[in-house]
Amino acid sequence: MQTWLKEKSTSTQACCNTMISLEEFHLIRDYIQKHCGIHLTEDKVYLVETRLTTLMIEHGFKTFGELYSKAVSDNTNTLRDKVIEAITTNETFWFRDLHPFGILNEVLFNKFAEEIVSGNRTKIKIWCCACSTGQEPYSIAMTYLDYLRKNPSLSPDHIEILATDISSTVLFLGKLGRYDSLAISRGLSDEFKDRYFDKGEKVWSIKDNVKRMVKFQKLNLQESFSHLGRHDIIFCRNILIYFSTEFKQDILQRIAALLQPNGYLFLGASESIIMYTDQYDMMRHAMGLYYQVK
Ligand SMILES: C[S@@+](CC[C@H](N)C(=O)[O-])C[C@H]1O[C@@H](n2cnc3c(N)ncnc32)[C@H](O)[C@@H]1O
After folding, report:
1. Does ligand 1 have an atom closer than 6 angstroms to the CB of 173?
2. Which of 79, 127, 147, 244 is the most exposed place for a label (fewest CB within 10 A)?
3. How far away, in angstroms, is 132 Cα from ligand 1 center?
4. Which CATH number goes with the domain that contains 21?
């Protein structure tokens, strides 16, 4: 081992006990569920330990119990937000699962375009409720811009894309719209890369015309979101899997209330609503599934 590495790991051990007790795990698990809805089963002890260790080192806490007490008594919520940031999984990539974007392009944009052209609607409103670093809402924006190339009767003014997340860090990165070569390589075709990004030395920046189409905003799904107003399409993808059954039911019910009559919901490829609600009809297009509120 390099000498500096040995010194670093020794000082980490000196600063904190990175083994979590079962009691500490239960306290932190309940705290996390209360503040962001993420439900951690007992096989996730290692996850809490590994994800919170950096925070322990940063603050010089000696035990997980100390981290918990400080978070509970911190009136500024700074530590609470750091715990949430550390525990959330922000994995995302461009055009994830492909089908939702094919369904927008081949089915839903056509339907809404007809209504706009015939004067029966003015806008298409889409909400991405756990947007991470922006790949999902920007993929929707690029899908729409591509659709406009074949349908010039519509314009970017006919769509509103709202992207929300609980994490300030991912929202900051999404708003920035700058991606390194690894992030940019995940799911994006060369054609879209060239058309919708400016290439710097090591960083790709999303073009202003795409960036302008997405509004980012902080929102915890545990809190009321009725103030966002009715939406035509909601993307709630790869987030329900982290929540308890009760919280899944609650969110799906509140999303149904936020959707316009006959509005649409997209979930992640491994997620389903079947066990949680009967408020939606399942729809199919090609190999993709989506849901329409009844
Ligand atoms: C795995 S990412 C999914 C990103 C994107 N939807 C996708 O499918 O690629 C999950 C996101 O949900 C966010 N999240 C976790 N709990 C949340 C909550 N209670 N309210 C809002 N966002 C939350 C996380 O910060 C993270 O960015």
Report:
1. no
2. 244
3. 6
4. 1.10.155
On the CB side of 9, how many CA atoms lie within 13 Å of its CA?
A: 5
Centre of ligand 1 from the C-alpha of residue 134, in Å: 11
Centroid of ligand 1 to alpha carbon of 90 (angstroms) = 6
Residue 190 C-alpha to ligand 1 middle, in angstroms? 27
Q: CB of 134 closer than 6 A to ligand 1?
A: no
The answer to whether the beta carbons of residues 213 and 158 sit under 8 Å apart is no
Whether residue 187 has its Cβ less than 6 Å from ligand 1: no
In a domain, residue 93? The reply is: no
Q: Are residues 160 and 236 in the same domain?
A: yes
- Of all protein residues, the one whose alpha carbon is nearest to atom 13 of ligand 1 is 130
* Domain enclosing residue 73, as ranges: 3-87
Q: Rounded to the nearest whole angstrom, what is the distance from the C-alpha of residue 289 to the centroid of ligand 1? A: 20
Give this prediction's pTM. Answer: 0.93
C-alpha distances in Å from residue 6, one per residue of 11, 14, 182, 193: 9, 12, 30, 43
Residue 238 Cβ inside 6 Å of ligand 1? The answer reads: yes
- Cα 288 to Cα 48, 212, 266, 268, 278: the distances in Å are 34, 29, 10, 11, 19
The per-residue pLDDT for 255 is 98
Predicted confidence (pLDDT) per residue in 165-213, tens digit:
999 999 999 999 999 999 999 999 999 999 999 998 899 999 999 999 9
Residues 216 and 111 both lie in one domain = yes
pLDDT in tens, 257-287: 999 999 999 999 999 998 999 999 999 999 9
